[in-house]
Structure formats: structure tokens, C-alpha cells
Amino acid sequence: MPILSSNYISNWYKLKSKDKDEFYVIENLTSAFSVSQSKKDLIQGEAGVHVMSALDSVWTTDLRSPILIIEQNDDTKETFRDIFTLFSDSYNQLRAFYSDISEVVSNNPTHPSRLKQKDLLTKAMFEISSTSAATLNLIYNCKYDFIFDVLKSDTLSNSNTKDPDTHLLNSSRIKNTPDKHNFLARTVRNYDVSLYVHENGEKYVLRNAKLTFDFDYNRMFFMNANTSIPFYEPKGYSVEGEVELIIPADKLDTFLFPAQNDDTKLIPGQNFMQLVRDKVNLALIFSDGRFVKVGLSSLSNSINVMMREGITTVSLRFNAYTSVI
């Protein structure tokens, strides 16, 4: 295996926001360009010259990183954010578009509810596990440089000398003392995240969870646009989730069994089993105060109650469709 100098190696990437004076700390970034083509026969048929007809060109940007809890001093010059903040900004912008879009808004290019290319989030996948850090995967319908700039580390080598054999930069480091830490951070674990149910005001601790946000777009092409990249019109979004909740032993009865006074209406204080028969407003709440609204959700499969390893857990699946609350 060849040995690379520190110029080529990095565990985290510092990405500067295009619109704000903020920096994102991201672990993995992939930006891909694809062109769909089809065979186009000339009038001679198969024996003639084959011409490839280019259809559309698509940029996608795939980000994957652990969710972080970041602490900074007030006097820090640079503000650092994690991938969850990037998701929240895009998610809230799309929700504002769904709520506020009108002919007045669509004709006003400076309206805050107008979307830009950096807002074209197409998929977000949360993975929360009791055995590893919580991760978030984001996929955008645009090139990465519409969202941020990639910045190199201030402490890596600035050497311009190349090895004559490998043609790689020499691994000499800057002799100056490295900068002090700009922030302290740790990865989010399952005990940092709770599932909040609006109707009964309860927060349930998560053991494992998988949430997928899918955003739908119409792909449109306009004459004289001089581009093969499509224009995207947001249609709506859906959320599919599978969660495993940890239920305290003293709350198991109130969680499972229906109340005797009223088991038909959605009123505060009813148990969870009553609520999921219809629809409930769900949200994920993090220990640092951040949250994401899942929306009005309905149960899509059976509920499994498991008593093992000294704890009681309840697993369930749910779906939500374009509910702005």
C-alpha cells in the first residue's frame, strides 16, 4: 500500500457556507455528474452511422457524517455547524416553500421562501443505534459548490516540493505552532435523542431508529434555456420511520392498555396505543435543544413489544406525508 503525505489525508472536512459566515464539519462528501444517453439511428437504419442522443445532465451531492453536539466559546471567530444543521436549514426552507408559495412569491426572486439550487434536498436518512454514533446522510440535486466551499486545513503542509519518484508532495509540516481548538464536539448517541408525541406530551427514549425523508420534484426543461440540466419543481415529501423505544417499567401499563374513561378521542394523557390508531404529531428532540418535526404520522405496521436484556422496548413503523405544522 502506498504511503500518502498528510496533504492527501483527512478525517473531517471544513466546508464554508455559501450564504453565511459559518463552517460545516463533514466526514464524507461525494459529488457526481451523470449524463443519460440513448442510441439514435440515422435514416439508413442499423447499417448507418449511430449517433448518441444526450438527454439530460444531472449533478448530485451525497453527504454522510455523524451528527455532532458542538460547544464553542462566544469569542470564537468562526462558527462551526454539523450535518444536522445543514439538514434543518434545507428542510425548513422546503417546508416554508410548501406553506408560502403563491403567484406573488414565485414572481419575487428575493422572497425568503424562494428556493435556490442549494435547497434541492432530495433524500435524508437518519440512523440512530445503541451501538454506534448517530449518522445522517443527505442527497442534493445540485453540485457541491452551490452549497459550500471546501477549505483545506490550516495545519497541513504547504510544501510545493514533489518526490521525483512518486510525484507526491513531501510530507513536511508547517513549523509554526498549530492553531488552538476552535470548538469541542462529540458524536450524538441514542440516549441524546427522544421521540416526542405532541398529543400526550410524552418523550420516549430511542434505542434504535431509522428515518427516511423523501422529497419529490418535477423535472422540467425549457426552450432556449441553453442547458441540459433540468429545472426542479418541488411537489411534496414523505417520511418513513422505524423506531425502537425504551419504555420504563412503571409506564408500561399506561403505554399499552387503553384508559377506561374514553378510548375513542385523541386527548392529552391518553396512552400511546390509542394515539397510533389514528394519527399523531411526532418529532425528534436532541439533548442540545435541537429538534426536527416529523409531522402528522400514522402507524403503517404492527407494534412489537419485547422484554429482553433487562429493558422493555416497543418497535413500530410509521409514515407521514407532507404535513406542515
Textual characterization of the structure:
The protein contains four helices and 17 strands. By secondary structure, the chain is mainly beta. The strands form three sheets. A six-stranded antiparallel β-barrel has the order 11-12-13-17-15-14. It is globular and about 70 Å long. 21% of the residues are buried. Mean pLDDT is 75; it is low at 154-158, 171-179 and 263-269.
Amino-to-carboxy terminus distance: 53 Å
Strand content: 35-45%
Strand order in space, largest sheet: 11-12-13-17-15-14
Structural Rg: 25 Å
Reported for the largest beta sheet, the result is: 6 strands, antiparallel, barrel
Estimate nothing, just give the exact number of structural domains: 2
Number of helices: 4
Helix-strand sequence: EEEEEEHHEEEEEEEHHEEEE
Query: Taking all residues together, what is the mean pLDDT?
Result: 75
Q: Give the proportion of residues in helices.
A: under 10%
Overall number of strands? 17
Overall geometry comes to globular
As residue ranges, the low-confidence spans are: 154-158, 171-179, 263-269
Structural class: mainly beta
Give a short synopsis of this structure:
The protein has four helices and 17 strands. With 325 residues, the chain is mostly beta strands.
Topology, please?
Blueprint: E1 13-17, E2 22-26, E3 28-41, E4 50-66, E5 68-71, E6 79-81, H1 83-100, H2 103-106, E7 121-128, E8 135-140, E9 148-151, E10 184-187, E11 193-197, E12 202-220, E13 231-247, H3 252-256, H4 272-275, E14 279-286, E15 291-299, E16 304-308, E17 311-321
